[in-house]
């Protein structure tokens, strides 16, 4: 099932929005990782994470802030790196690393909430969206295209 939206067509199965063309069923392949909606959402999430950690105590600069930002940046960075890999196994490995970094960030948000460093609810909501999209993207690349024997 697909839903038409102003920005494109969103597949309910994958959660990946693609730009529409004149033909509803034709989908232009992405040219760069920046074309991937999952990367765009992950990048926006990193920017929000940076803004959130600006308010943390100075004593956390080389501790929680550093760890959280490093893990956050790892998510879109691994999506980008995996995008250019040729084999399905390599692509899946990088998506799995991105998923692991996202879960690490989930913990840092729980910790920040429990330490009362700010309201992490909006970031948790964004994280959940990125996680769903990343899972769908990883599943979509598991299956090679019809007629292709590369893996």
Description of the molecule:
This protein is mainly alpha-helical. 59% of the residues lie in helices and 5% in strands. The chain contains 4 helices and 3 strands; from the N terminus they run E-E-E-H-H-H-H. Strands 1-2-3 form a 3-stranded antiparallel β-sheet, with no helix packed on it. A hairpin with a 5-residue loop joins strand 2 (9-11) and strand 3 (17-18). The longest helix is centred in the last third of the chain and has 27 residues, at 88-114. The radius of gyration is 17 Å and the shape is elongated.
Class from secondary-structure proportions: mainly alpha
Number of strands: 3
Return the string of H and E elements: EEEHHHH
Main β-sheet description: 3 strands, antiparallel
Task: Please work out how many helical segments DSSP would assign.
Answer: 4
Examine the secondary-structure arrangement and name the CATH architecture.
Answer: Up-down Bundle
Uncertain segments: 1-26, 147-151
Q: Share of helix among residues?
A: 55-70%
Identify the strand order in the major beta sheet. Answer: 1-2-3
Q: Span from first to last CA?
A: 27 Å
How big is the Rg? Answer: 17 Å
**CATH homologous superfamily name?**
23S rRNA-intervening sequence
CATH topology: de novo design (two linked rop proteins)
Strand content: 5-15%
- Overall spatial form: elongated
- Quickly name the level 1 CATH class: Mainly Alpha
- Tell me the count of domains: 1
Average residue pLDDT = 83
């Amino acid at each position: 099932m697909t839903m038409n939206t102003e920005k494109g067509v969103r597949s309910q199965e994958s959660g990946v929005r693609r730009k529409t063309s004149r033909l509803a069923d034709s989908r232009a392949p992405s040219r760069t990782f920046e074309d991937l909606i999952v990367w765009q959402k992950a990048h926006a999430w990193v920017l929000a994470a940076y803004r959130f950690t600006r308010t943390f105590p100075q004593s956390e600069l080389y501790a929680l802030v550093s760890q959280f930002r490093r893990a956050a940046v790892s998510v879109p960075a691994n999506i980008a790196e995996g995008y250019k890999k040729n084999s399905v196994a390599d692509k899946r490995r990088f998506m799995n690393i991105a998923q692991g970094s996202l879960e690490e960030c989930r913990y840092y948000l729980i910790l920040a909430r429990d330490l009362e460093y700010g309201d992490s609810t909006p970031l948790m909501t964004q994280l959940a969206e990125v996680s769903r999209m990343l899972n769908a993207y990883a599943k979509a690349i598991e299956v090679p295209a019809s007629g292709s024997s590369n893996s």
